[in-house]
Amino acid sequence: MKTLLSKIRSQLKRQASAKKALEMQAYMKSEMPYHGVQAPEVKKIAREAFKDFEYTEENWRESVLYLWRNAKFREERYLALNLCRQTKAREFQTSKNLKMYEEMIVDGAWWDYVDDISSRVGEILKNEPEKMKKKMLQWGRSKNMWKRRVSIICQLKFKAETDTDLLYRSIEESMGSDEFFLRKAIGWALREYAKTDSKEVKRFVKANRDRLSPLSQREALKNLK
User: Fold this and answer.
1) What does pTM read for this prediction?
2) CB of 116 within 8 A of CB of 64?
């Protein structure tokens, strides 16, 4: 794991840009510094770094956490997230590894990390719907804003398979919040589901017009006439 992190850091340093690093850090409002390596190059580094990776569940989980916990630059955490979404890691998307994702959500506490992780949580939800629905409803009531955001947006790509009961109950818990990232998440989740059932989203927004924030309503109805 030390070798993997060292290899990643070496490749990132070779492509580093001090100017871009400052721009990226300012844009993301990040306390953790950047190397200044943009997303396409980070993906290339990931392909090379994980080319010969040993995909056992234990090695995968420990490597993800090692990269995450020992990161000194934000791109190093992006590499940890990239390892999470590798095709060969799909079989590891189970509730057994939810604790790892929960740590990363709470520790990362910003949208670039959390939104990426929410897709992995969504995969676990698809794999274990009954167990994960209970967990997502718990997260929807959490004092941690980012866990609540995940409970709302974890079904973004579910389309017709969306569990609307879970979606609406998760939204319900955050409907009265003043938090921008929760209001945005509500609108985003509804807007995505509107691509599948626009009438239902219109009905939901109309029924909750006095409770949904203007931002959530605008986002939800953004692409609807």
Assistant:
1) 0.95
2) no
Q: What are the pLDDT digits (tens) for 92-121?
A: 999 999 999 999 999 999 999 999 999 999
Q: What residues have CB less than 8 Å from 37, skipping those under 6 apart?
A: 12, 15, 16, 17, 20, 45, 75
104 sits in which H/E element: helix 98-108
Residue with tokens 């095709």: 87
Per DSSP, the three-state class of 66 is helix
Please tell me what DSSP assigns to residue 210.
Answer: T
Q: How far apart (Å, rounded) are the C-alpha atoms in residues 85 and 143?
A: 27
- Give the CA distances from residue 145 to residues 38, 47, 189, in Å, rounded to whole numbers and listed in that order: 28, 33, 16
- In residues, how long is the chain? 225
Structure tokens belonging to residue 110: 């910003």
